[in-house]
Design goal:
Order of helices and strands: HHHHHHHEEH
Helix content: 55-70%
Mean pLDDT: 87
Radius of gyration: 19 Å
């Protein structure tokens, strides 16, 4: 019979608490901790005041390729890759730190606009985790924009020669989204 370490269990609980604060769902918690589903559910209810959401996680690369999610996802992935390469972070710690830095950037960008920061960032922790898995599985990759030289997420099977990012080549509907968002916030 394996002896459970109180210190190890405490570390697992701390990790779960940190992930729940960032918006993790049970699937992510179960994959990154050794805690039982029952304990994770109780912890989630205690912290959030309601049961964890049910249902399947997003499983489509298409979301990451649309104009606004692509910009936010690319920002996150560039932070993640930088921390892995230069800070020596790996695994879930790299994901957590990258997502925290993404949130800081998101809130600072939102505050510079003419409207207050929205409650929900474009990229959730679950989507960020999914993005990392998609890039590890070689379903998505980054490609440098031929204009600004920034690295953006693209489909590995697309032709990406002379690639132009969504910032250098803004889609025609992008302005419509910003206008609708401002109208909603003004109401």
């Amino acid at each position: 019979m394996k002896v459970k370490s109180i210190v190890d269990e405490s570390a697992q609980l701390q990790l779960a608490i940190e992930l729940i604060k960032l918006g993790a769902r049970l699937q992510l918690l179960e994959s990154q901790t050794d805690l039982s589903r029952e304990r994770l559910t109780k912890l989630y209810k205690e912290m959030r005041g309601f049961s964890p959401p049910k249902g399947m996680l997003p499983f489509s690369t298409d979301w990451f390729l649309t104009w606004q999610p692509n910009i936010h996802s690319s920002l996150f992935l560039n932070i993640y890759n930088f921390l892995k390469e230069h800070a020596g972070l790996t695994g879930i710690q790299a994901l957590i730190k990258s997502y925290q830095l993404y949130l800081e950037q998101y809130h600072s960008i939102e505050q510079t606009d003419d409207h207050p920061a929205s409650d929900e960032p474009v990229l959730s922790l679950i989507r960020a985790w999914t993005l990392v898995r998609f890039t590890d599985q070689k379903l998505l990759k980054t490609e440098s924009c031929s204009c600004c030289k920034g690295k953006f997420i693209v489909d590995v099977y697309d032709l990406n020669e002379d690639y132009l990012c969504n910032l250098c080549h803004v889609p025609s509907r992008a302005g419509k989204y910003q206008k609708n968002k401002k109208e909603l916030l003004a109401a």
